[in-house]
Structure formats: C-alpha cells, structure tokens
Write a structure and sequence with these properties.
With 221 residues, the protein is α+β, with helices and mostly antiparallel strands. The protein has one domain. The chain has helices at residues 19-36, 43-69, 78-93, 95-107, 135-148, 154-161, 168-181, 213-220, and strands spanning 10-16, 112-118, 122-129, 189-194, 197-205. It has a 5-stranded antiparallel beta sheet. A hairpin with a 3-residue loop joins strand 2 and strand 3. Residues 217-221 have low confidence and may be disordered.
C-alpha cells in the first residue's frame, strides 16, 4: 500500500486521544470539508465509516496496552489469548478501567491520527495508528473484505458474520457496504501497514478526473 497521494488544496491533521473528545473534531472537520466542495450528501456515509475506523484504532491501542500489561505476547496461544480478550472487553466497557488503559497507551507512545486531504477532484482521509497490524489480524481483515465483496445485502452479511470474535474485521467489511451504497468504488477503501503504522484510507472521487495512487501506479507501469 503506497502512501503517496494527489495534491490537495486543503490538508488537515488531527491527533485523537479518546472517542469522547476526538470524534466530534473528526465529524466537524469532515462536515466543513464536504461543505466547502458541496458534497454534504456524503456526510452520513463517511461519518459512519470514520467513527468505525477511529474507534477501532483507539481500541486496538488499548488492547495492546492491556495485553502488554499482562505479559501476553504469544498470540498463537489461542486459549490464553481468548481468555485475555474477554477480560479486555470487560475493561474496555468500564469507564475507569478504560481511562487507565488510555493513559498506559499514551505512556507507551501509541497514538491515532486522522489526516484529511481535499480538493475539487476528491477527498482522501486516513486513520493512522502507530501500532502495526499483526499478520493474523491483517489476514482476518483481508478475509472479511473478500467475503463482503461477495454479498449484495448488508443484512445477509451481518446474519452470517455477526458472531466474529474480535469484530474489527467485521467493522471494516461493513464499511464496504456503506461506501457501495453511495456508489463509491470499494477498492478505494484500503487497510494496510505503512512504515510500521496501520493505515486505513478512504478515497472519494468528486470528479471523474480523480485518480487514486493505485491507478496512477498502474498507468505508470
């Protein structure tokens, strides 16, 4: 996944420390940028996608802090990992414990950035956290993407996959349906590792002249 992008007239970078304080800033920035280019019809769809991506990125950092504190590094130990995951879910839902996990994640240097680039041709938004996907996580997400592409009905997909153990791959896949409902090419939503960071990128063309980094690379070769 290349991190190169088109030239944008407006660029914005937000550091997000919590869902409560961070998401309103993200939503405000998105609304302003879409309004500037008369694309507010896309707000609900993109807001839903960004809420999922930001929440998932923050949750991944807290989970890492939780597992590190308990000395769980061998994720291949399925029994130990699943037990710890259940404990984390309880801690994540508790306001006090979640607050302590946020402080530990910050002390470990973990962060989440939301980066916007926008022009008359299109919008690019990236949600970045400096915790790379582990191989099994990346594999699960790619599997979810591939499976979701074979469905045309969101309800059918959710009925078949709502019992996912961790949920992140499910959330990523559901975003494909939201984008497709707005006639946005699902291939313009990608998740990967760039320079040791997990990057989730959504590109939204406003004009037919917009070209993604992937398209420009294909044309160049």
């Amino acid at each position: 996944m290349t991190n190169a992008g088109p030239r944008f007239e407006h660029n914005l970078r937000l550091e997000i420390r919590s869902v409560l304080t961070g998401l309103p800033r993200v939503q405000h920035a998105l609304e302003n940028l879409l309004g500037r280019y008369e694309q507010l019809r896309l707000y609900d769809c993109l807001r839903t996608c960004l809420v999922e991506l930001v929440t998932n990125a923050l949750r991944a950092n807290l989970k890492h802090a939780f597992l590190t504190e308990r000395g769980i590094t061998d994720l291949a130990n399925d029994v130990e990992y699943r037990a710890a995951l259940q404990e984390f879910k309880v801690a994540y839902r508790d306001e006090v414990q979640a607050g302590e996990l946020r402080r530990r994640a910050e002390a470990m240097g973990l962060y989440v950035l939301v980066r916007f680039g926008c022009s008359q041709e299109g919008l690019c938004v990236e949600v970045i956290n400096n915790l790379p996907l582990r191989p099994h996580e990346e594999s699960r997400i790619r599997s979810r993407f591939a499976t979701a592409m074979g469905y045309t009905d969101l309800v059918d997909y959710f009925d078949d996959h709502h019992d996912d153990t961790e949920g992140s791959g499910l959330g990523f896949a559901l975003n494909l349906f939201f984008l497709r409902a707005e006639n946005i090419d699902p291939s313009l939503f990608r998740v990967g590792v760039v320079d040791g960071c997990t990057v989730a990128r959504i590109e939204v063309p406003f004009l037919e002249s917009y070209s993604s980094p992937r398209q420009r690379y294909a044309e160049a070769v």
